[in-house]
């Protein structure tokens, strides 16, 4: 079953919240990029916490029939990227999040209220 990008974002955000992810931000990048419609960015306190957040996001989306096209960085647990096509989810440890600072890099994107 195909669901719209906003539903993917909302499910991912709820799954991240359920695992106590921190600093959850949703960026609407539709007007500034063709790579996706939304970025979901959040943090975990440690590698295992990041992995738990990622696993819960994947599990909750899989329950709706949505599977990641690609997952990168899971083993290391510093920055995990989940590519769902129209939605790209970034789960960081805080040090990596501050270093890469996607919110600044994508500063022209609109920060959207949750739920989308």
UniProtKB/TrEMBL annotation:
Pfam families: RsfS. GO terms for cellular component: cytoplasm. GO terms for molecular function: ribosomal large subunit binding. NCBIfam families: rsfS_iojap_ybeB. Functions as a ribosomal silencing factor. Interacts with ribosomal protein uL14 (rplN), blocking formation of intersubunit bridge B8. Prevents association of the 30S and 50S ribosomal subunits and the formation of functional ribosomes, thus repressing translation. Interacts with ribosomal protein uL14 (rplN). This is Ribosomal silencing factor RsfS. It comes from Pelotomaculum thermopropionicum (strain DSM 13744 / JCM 10971 / SI).
């Amino acid at each position: 079953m195909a669901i719209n990008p906003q539903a993917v974002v909302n499910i991912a955000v709820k799954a991240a919240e359920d695992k106590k992810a921190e600093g959850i931000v949703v960026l609407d990048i539709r007007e500034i990029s063709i790579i996706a419609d939304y970025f979901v960015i959040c943090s975990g306190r440690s590698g295992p916490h990041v992995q738990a957040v990622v696993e819960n996001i994947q599990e909750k989306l899989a329950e709706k029939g949505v599977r990641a096209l690609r997952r990168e960085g899971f083993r290391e647990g510093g920055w995990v990227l989940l590519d769902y096509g129209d939605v790209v989810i970034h789960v960081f440890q805080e040090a990596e999040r501050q270093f890469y600072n996607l919110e600044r890099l994508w500063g022209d994107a609109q920060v959207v209220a949750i739920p989308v």
